[in-house]
Give the backbone structure.
Amino acid sequence: LTGAITLDPGYKNSGSCKSEITFLDGEEGILRYRGYSIEDLAAKANFLEVSYLLIFGELPTKTQIEKFENDIRKYTLVNEEMKNIIDGFPKTAHPMGVLASLTSALTAFNPKSVNPHNEKEMYEAVCKTMGKFLVIATWTFRKSMGYPLNYYDNTKGYVENFMHLMYALPTGPYKIDPIVVQALDKLFILHADHEQNCSTSTVRIVGSSHAGLFASIASGVSALWGPLHGGANQAVLEMLEEIHKNGGDVAKFVLKAKDKDDPFRLMGFGHRVYKNFDPRATIIKKAADDVLTALGVDDPLLDIAKQLEKVALEDEYFKARNLYPNVDFYSGIIYRALGIPTEMFTVMFAIGRLPGWIAQWKEMRINKEPIGRPRQVYVGHPLREFKSMDKR
Ligand code: SDX
C-alpha cells in the first residue's frame, strides 16, 4: 500500500471501504488489478487467469488454472427446474431482467449459505457462480430466439463455451473462431473489475447484510442494467445507429448532447472517476480496428464512432467537463462484429464483471465489514406540530 491509508472514523458505515483488489487513478488514466496494469493483463492474460487473480489475489500457476477450470466444470449443470422459470418470461423480456431473476433463483436451488471464512466452501461457491452464471446468461439469448437451451461443453474452455452456449444448434457442429475467443477474452478482462462502481458497491452493500452470493450478484446485475452504467454499451450502439440513419451527422448529436433542455447525453462519454481518459477505451478502440479487420467486417458505425469522438474531443463543452470516451464507447462495435445482438451487450458486461463482483463480495465478507449504512445530510422540515385533518 502506498503509505498509510487514513479513512475518516465514520468510514465504517459510510459506504467507503478499503480494498486490495483494484487501483484506479482518474487523473493519470491508470487501472490495475492486484497491482498488474490493465494493459499487460489485456495483452498477455486470458479471462479465467484474470478472474483467478481478482478472486484469489495471485496470478495462477498452470496447475492452479487447470484445477480452477476443471472445478468450474463440476458446477455448470443448472437445475432443470430453472427452465420452468425462464419459460415464464415473454421472448421480448430484456435479457438483463431475465438474468437478474435467474441469478436470484439460483439461491432456491443452492440454499446453503456460504461461510466465506471456510476456504473450501468459498472456493466451491466461486466455481459454482462462475459456472452457472455463464450458462444462465446465455439462456437469456436462447430464450429470446426460441432456441433450445444449451449445456456447457466440458471439452471446451470457459470463453469458448460462451460462444458454444450462445450459438451451437442441435442441427450440426458449431465452429468457434479463435479470433472471436481472443477478442472476448480481452473484452471480458477489460470489464472484470473497476473498484467501487455502482454495481460493485451494490453487490458489497447487499452482501454486507450477509445476504448470499447469488442474491448479491443478482442485485449487481440490476444496478449494471441502468443506461448510466453498464446499459450504456447498448445505448451507444442505438445512438450510433440513429446517427447513421441521420446521414452520419455527428455534429448535430454533439450539439444535442450539450443542450440543457434536451435529456440526450453522448452515451459512452464521461466517467465518475476518469477525468482524463479511460485506459480501457484506448485498448478497446484499437481492438475494434484489429478484430473487424481480422474478421473482414466493414462497419460504418466504427467510422461514425471515431468521427463522434474527434468532434466531441475538440468541443469546448466536452473539454471543459473532462468528458472522454469510456469503456462502453467502442465495446459494442466489437460485440456487433462478433454477432452478439445489441440487447445482449450489457449481459456481456455482466459476464466480464462477475469475477470482480465475486472478489469484492469475498473481500468484504472476509474482512468482516459492518453492514453498509451510507450517511445522509438531513435537509427536511424541523419538528412540526401535528394538526388534525379539519385544521389543515
Ligand atoms: C460505466 O464507475 C465506474 O467505474 C463505471 C464503469 C465501470 O467499469 O463499472 O466505468 C462503467 O458505467 C461507464 C459510464 C457509462 N455511462 C455512460 O456512458 C452514460 C453517459 N455518461 C454520463 O451519463 C455521465 O458521464 C456519467 C454518468 C458516466 C458520469 O456522470 P457524472 O460524473 O456524475 O457527471 P455529471 O452528471 O456530474 O456531469 C458533469 C457535467 C454535467 O454538465 P453541467 O451540469 O456541469 O453543465 O458533464 C455533463 C453533465 O450534463 N455530462 C455530459 C455527459 N456526461 C456528463 N454531457 C453530455 N454527454 C455526456 N455523456
